[in-house]
Design goal:
The protein has about 475 residues and is mostly helical. The longest helix is centred in the first third of the chain and has 38 residues.
Amino acid sequence: MVNIPVICLIFVLLVFPFYWRLTRLGQNLWLIATSLALYGWIDWRFPCLLLFSALVSFSCGNKIAAASSPKQRKAWLLGALSINLGLLGYLKYVNFFVGSFVALTNSVGWHVSAASVHVLLPVGISFFTFQSLTYPLDLYLGRAKERVPFITFITYVTFLPKLFAGPIARAGEFSEALSHKRQFRIEDLQEGCTRFLTGYFKKIIIADNLAAYLVNPVIADPNSYSTGAVWAAMFGYAVQVYADFSGYSSMAIGSAKVLGLTIPENFNFPFLAVNFSDFWRRWHITMSTFFRDYVYFPLGGSRKGRARASINVIATMVVCGLWHGAAWTFVTFGLIHGLYLAMNQWTKHISDFKGRYRQLRVILSWSCTQVLICLSMVPFFSVSLAAAVVYLRALFGSPGSLSIPSQTAALFCFLAFFFDHFYGWLLAHRPGFEKRYITVQATAYASIIILSYLFTPDKPNPFIYFQF
C-alpha cells in the first residue's frame, strides 16, 4: 500500500531546502523532477502516461488557440478529448464494459465468455486527465485567452500533492502562480503546516479509526449486526469518506502552501448543507464545478426550461458517478444524486426558508438532506448492487444482534467530526472567529499532535479516492 501522506511529506522535504534560492524556471524544473521521481517510485510507467496525457492536451490546446476557424478549433478539441478520454476509458473501464456486455448476452441466452483484461491503472489517472484537459477546454470555450508556457504547464500537471486525488486545479489559475518566482513567507509555512496537520488528523485518526472499529466490520456482514449498528455504520461511512478525502485535500493544499502555491479548496463543511444543491457546492468542489462547467453547461444547463434542466443534471451526475469507478454501484450513486438535484430544482420555490417557522424549516430540510445523502452512500460503498440491497434491508430490520465493534472509538470519531463542522458553522456565523482566541487554536493543534500519536491505527486504511 502506498503511503500518500509520507510521499507528500517527502516531496516537500526534498523541494524545500533548495527551492527558494532558484530562479522561477529553476523552481518549476525542480518541482517537475521531484514530482516525476516520486510518482515513478510507485511504478516507473506512471510518469510516461502522465507526460503523454499532458503533451496531448498542451499541443491540442495551442492548436486551438492558433486555429483560424471554428471547425479547426473543434477538431483539435475533439482530438484532445478522444485521446485522453479514450486512454482513460480503456485503462479504467475496459473490464467494466466487457463484463456488462457478457452479462447482457448471457441474460438473453447467448452464452459468451471473456477473460478479464489486465491493464495498468496509474494512480490518480482520473484526476490528472481532467486537470490536463482543462487547458484545451478553457481555450476552446473562451475561459482562457493566453497560451501557457510549456514548462509551466508540465509543472502544473505533474505537481505531486494534487496528482493523486486532486483538488482539480484549472490550468489557467494554477499556471498564473507558477509563472512568477515564489518567495519564502513565514505565513505560508505556518498555514501550510497547520493545514497538513489537520488533514493528517482527519485521515489517519477519524477516517481510519472509523473504518477499523465500525464501518468495515459492519459493511462486510450487515446481517450479523443489530439494526442500530447498521445505521451507525452507514452514517459512519459518510463521516469516513468526508474525513478521508477532505483530509487528503487539506494535506495537498498544505503541501502546496508551504511552497508558496495555492490549490483551490475542495470541501466547505458539506454536512452543514440544507439541500442537495448546497451539498454539491460544498462537497468535492473542484470536481462538481468541473462537471458543471464542462458537462452540464454544454448540455444546455437550465437555459431550455426546467424539464430539460432536470434531464441535463441527471445525465451529468450519471457521468460523475461513472467517473468514480467502473461499476454499476457508482452509476447508481450518480443517478440517485441526479434525481436529488432534479427534485431540488422543482422544489426550489417552496424551500427558500422565508416567512414563519423559518428556523424549523431549515432544521427539517437539513435533517432530510443529511439522511438522504447518507442513504445514497450505500451503493457507493457496496461491492455490488445485490450487496447494496442486502444492506438496505438490514437498515429496516437486521436479523443480527451484534453491537458496534468499538463504541468508544466510534464515539470519539463522531465527536471529532462534530467539532470540525461546528468550527465551520462558527466561521460562517461569527466572521473573524479564526483570528481570535489564539490560545484556543494553539491548544487545539497541540491536542491534534498528541491524539495523532496516541491513536494512529496499526494498519492505516487505504485512501478511498485513491482508486479513482
